[in-house]
Amino acid sequence: MPHPTPTTGATLTLVSHHLCPYVQRAAIALAEKGVAFERRTVDLAAKPDWFLAMSPLGKVPLLVIRREDGSEAVLFESAVICEYLEDTQTGRPLHPADPLVRAQHRGWMEFGSSILSDLWGFETASDAETYATKRQALTEKFRRVEAALGNGPFFAGEHFSLVDAVFAPIFRYFDVFDTVTPTGVFDGLEKVSAWRAALMQRPSVRTAVAEDYPERLKVFLKDHDAWLLKLAA
Fold first, then answer.
1. 63: closest CA among 30, 109, 21?
2. What is the pLDDT of residues 52-71, one digit of tens each?
3. 78-88 vs 21-33: helix crossing angle, rounded to 10
4. Residues 160, 199: Cα–Cα separation, whole Å
5. Which of 32, 80, 116, 210 is most buried, judged by most C-beta within 10 A?
6. HEC per residue, 139-195
């Protein structure tokens, strides 16, 4: 299978937010591909006009591609950005070569996005009932992940893939939550726990956020009157 044609001469800018897990997916993919890129962070609570002009959905990430002739193209949606990087950049593939397995991986990437939806409800829950409901939803989904995992260390075994890039930001949330109070979401899930630990040691994962990420996430929890913080009180 021939290598994809790299976007030689293009410079890439990843438009980001400090906490966004979807931004982290793209940053991890860029790092895994060994692609140099710039990062521009926006305040989503006060979106600048230039950002709204670029982003049809008003969301991050955006990948701004500046071509050799000075023109620019903008990609939005993390899955699209990751697929573009896979198609255009040299470096180790992050998708399986087999079409069926590749399609299965895309399915698990979508499953990761559904976990993020539950995770939003979990971290912003301000009462015990909502917290318990969202915790149960997360536990059930991670049980499905447990059943799908092999011997590791990554989702597809020895090779880091885009599925890993999707789940690493999810696990990062729990690294911070664990410093507040135990959630118990991964209790009894040995394969998921081992996968989580392996991903957190990956350089691309560790550098996908700034050093102040934990503090920023805790401020977010406080601003949302999170039940998680009340449990720790």
1. 30
2. 999 999 999 999 999 989 99
3. 10
4. 9
5. 32
6. HHHHHHHHHHCCCCCECCECCCCHHHHHHHHHHHHHHHHHHHCCCCCCCCCHHHHHH
Each residue's pLDDT tens digit, 122-164 = 999 999 999 999 999 999 999 999 999 999 999 999 999 999 9
Read off the tokens for 175.
Answer: 């690294």
Q: Are 18 and 217 in contact (CB under 8 A)?
A: no
The beta-strand segments (E) located in the chain are 11-16, 38-41, 62-66, 72-76
Confidence of residue 10 (pLDDT cuts 50, 70, 90): low
**Residue 180 neighbours by CB under 8 Å, 6+ apart:** 218, 221, 228, 229, 231, 232
Model's pTM, two decimal places?
0.93
How many CA atoms within 13 Å lie on the side-chain side of 8?
Answer: 2
